[in-house]
Amino acid sequence: MIVENKTLFADGFHDAICGTSDDGRVIYSKVGMVEILVERDEMSVEDAMVYCEFNVWNTYVGDYGPIYINDFDADFDEISDCINA
């Protein structure tokens, strides 16, 4: 459910959307967002994670702001290997 004129999206991360919450918020995969930055912006995995941590995941943009799920199930080296495979 998207609430017209209220639901907020994270710009440039459409492919990382996992779904929506019952209250109309968009849910994003943190791993998917890192993958996008690595592929699109040619960032290292570490730089992409730091960028998202400081500029996206920890921002509050209101009641209809996005939700970011922590779907990291591996350590940093495994994530890096997976994305760079």
Report the helical percentage.
25-40%
Query: Which outline best applies?
Result: elongated
Report strand order across the widest sheet: 1-2-3
- Low-pLDDT parts are none
Tally of structural domains? 1
Mean pLDDT: 87
Taking the alpha carbons of the first and last residues, their distance comes to 35 Å
Strand content: 5-15%
SS summary, helix count: 3
Overall SS class: alpha+beta
* Largest sheet geometry: 3 strands, mixed
- The total of beta strands comes to 3
Cα gyration radius (Å): 13 Å
* String of helices and strands: EEHHEH
Descriptive account of the structure:
This protein is of the alpha+beta class. Helices cover 38% and strands 13% of the residues. It has one domain (14-83). It has three helices and three strands. A three-stranded mixed β-sheet has the order 1-2-3. Strand 1 (17-20) and strand 2 (26-29) form a beta hairpin. The mean pLDDT is 87.
Short description:
By secondary structure, the protein is of the alpha+beta class. It has 3 helices and 3 strands, in the order E-E-H-H-E-H.
Topology:
Blueprint: E1 17-20, E2 26-29, H1 30-40, H2 45-57, E3 67-69, H3 76-83
Helix pairs in contact: 1-2
Top keywords for this entry?
alpha+beta, 3-stranded mixed sheet, elongated, 38% helix
